[in-house]
Fold Stage 0 sporulation protein A homolog.
Amino acid sequence: MSKILIVEDEEAIADLEKDYLELSGFQVEVATDGETGLKRAMEGEFDLYILDLMLPGVDGFDICRQIRNEKNTPIIMVSAKKDDIDKIRGLGLGADDYMTKPFSPSELVARVKAHLARYDRLTGSAMEANKIIEIRGLKIDTTARRVWVNGEEKTFTTKEFDLLTFLASHPNHVYTKEELFREIWDMESIGDIATVTVHIKKIREKVELDTSNPQYIETIWGVGYRFKV
Ligand code: CA
């Protein structure tokens, strides 16, 4: 059974979220202030986090940042203000999804399920395949989510890592930007296929010696991308 941590100081909202999620078969724990939330997030084993942004004590930004330093568990950020959502996205904290209050609890449940399924798929496929992908100078530890280029470790955001690992796990397969966007992002509302282009560019800057002549991720003009082996 998947375990979810809700950090939310408005108890009525927390209770509503908890009820719906429990009815959908999830195990739910609630923390009603930032400090307790952060403590439970770091010490507990959860499959997904739902973080309110404005909290007494430690706010949702800090909790999100600290979870991401250590874990790749899906995070849904919640805020009462649309402006805050734009701010969270801009900060690139590594949250997987954003919702503006008030939202329907069934929408929340749908998103929770989608994120858990995607996370399972990503980690599951990593376990079926080799845990280490090694292609020329590029080494990806899909279990520990670490990447080395010619022996030097590089840091990747969650999405950059997911995209690189997905392409490297399916070498010589050409994917369109739409396919990659659906595979890695899922939620059509959070962005568009231009996001894929931006992430490919960032990945190339980290893995390629010469980004104008990429040796790993090849652009297939008019179609999409292919990981070369
Ligand atoms: Ca709040």
Notes: The two ends are 39 Å apart (CA to CA). The first strand starts at residue 3 and ends at 7. The chain has a mean pLDDT of 90.
